[in-house]
Amino acid sequence: MRAVRFHEFGTAEVLVVEEIPEPRAAEGQVAVQVSAAGVNFADTIVRSGCVPIPLPFTAGFEVVGEADGQRVIGSTMGGGYAEHVVLSAALPVPDELDDHTALAVFGNGAAALGIVGAARVQSGETVFVDAAAGGVGSLVVQLAKSAGATVIAGVGSAGKVEQVRALGADRVVDYLQSGWTENVGPVHIVLDTVGGSVATAAFTLLVPSVGRIVLAGTSSGEPPNIEPAAVLSKSVSVIGYASALLPPEQQAELRVRALELGRAGDLKPILGQVFPLDRAADAHRAVESRATVGKVILQL
């Protein structure tokens, strides 16, 4: 079968399509013929060598496809960029969702639910969401709005403003513009997946004593610079969130909820670029450029 692998860590060029043996399912596992695989920023982090893994490695952590005549979706510890994969568990895809939409709400929707839940978003609060045009951020905007919050969405280019406004954001700002924080004002909550200078600046917007910031990613490539003394003086909460570190049963619960919200039309993901398997390197470049919107997908 065809699979996208890398034999060394590095830039997107290390991704190559190879013929490898088809995996065989053991008892209790699910053999899936893959129709599409999700491409996430985490995939690029692993490829670049930030996570110690044995090489060669087959990329990809979430897939949708067919098993025993049924459409299913699931996650794997690698191996997703391939024509066939073996999963330890799989969920049925609701009939109301096509494969790409299911992929867009499965992992990213679960992450968005976890982020909003960690922040304990309440009706009447003001929330700032960065990377609001991304696969996770666009769903966070929708969930925060449905919780009754006023949502100020942050994007990294003027070309993304209208797409995010259509999601229901009350205001949209370009955080690559100088002085962008002046257009945001005090907020009760910051939901961050960018890190770096964006998260550092957003932290200063928190309302003292009740403010909280959820740090859930570093797509900028850098962590935020938040001094403990500043946290103390403002009496605010800094909350770390990583989906991969949740107990398996909690991850499963969030994924089931995300698929149900997608099925009901309460989560409407933005579907981004679709690449064929042999252009996985281009998909990684697109994600790393931060010019993409919504969910990036590999079509098999």
From TrEMBL:
GO MF terms held by the record: mRNA 3'-UTR AU-rich region binding; NADPH binding; quinone reductase (NADPH) activity
Domain Enoyl reductase (ER): 10-298
Residues that span the membrane, as ranges: none
SMART domains per the UniProt record, alphabetical: PKS_ER
Entry's Gene Ontology cellular component terms: cytosol
Keywords: NADP, Oxidoreductase
Domain of life: Bacteria
Protein name, entry field: Zinc-binding dehydrogenase
Species per Swiss-Prot/TrEMBL record: Antrihabitans cavernicola
